[in-house]
Specification:
Distance between the termini: 77 Å
Low-confidence stretches: none
Oligomer: single chain
Shape: elongated
Radius of gyration: 25 Å
Largest sheet: 5 strands, antiparallel
Helix content: 25-40%
Mean pLDDT: 85
Length: 156
């Protein structure tokens, strides 16, 4: 029979090491979780803020929005909303955090979309909640149009 004895001092050191490892593991989980839900924080309270944001994204738009309307993000997402929210998540937004909230949607005419057959059909949409950008897109409103994120991939 083999018997091993452990000094009390060794157990204290071991418990300190285990505690430190547990704290480090918890920190890693928090950091990884935070990076997955990284959001972009844009303050768009004024027309000037929205104009500057769209210019920073590479878009030339009219001097003022074409439309401004209030909508409520639905409590339950349909397939269309789920797909749209996937586009938002790719940009660092997540509309599911705003279910049931009233938001403002600003629509702008885009004047510099490359390769557009009908420039009047290209629109930029900004979704704003309490002055903060929570989503948006650039799309063609024509039949068989397209939808993309807010950044102009052709802008230099």
């Amino acid at each position: 029979m083999y018997i091993k004895t452990v000094k009390l001092k060794d157990l204290r050191a071991l418990s300190v090491i285990i505690a430190v490892l547990l704290v480090l593991a918890a920190l890693m989980i928090v950091i990884i979780g935070a990076s997955k839900h990284k959001t972009i924080d844009y303050d768009l309270k004024t027309e000037s803020d929205r104009q500057q944001f769209l210019a920073d994204m590479g878009w030339k738009v009219g001097k003022k929005y074409e439309s401004c309307r209030q909508v409520t993000i639905p409590e339950k997402f349909t397939a269309v909303y789920k797909n749209y929210n996937e586009l938002q998540k790719q940009q660092g937004f997540d509309l599911s955090e705003y279910k049931g909230k009233n938001v403002t949607i600003y629509t702008y005419a885009v004047k510099n979309y490359k390769n557009s057959q009908n420039p009047e059909a290209i629109k930029a949409t900004l979704i704003v909640y309490k002055g903060k950008l929570i989503g948006g897109d650039v799309c063609s409103i024509e039949l068989n149009g397209f939808m993309q994120g807010l950044r102009n991939r052709d802008a230099k």
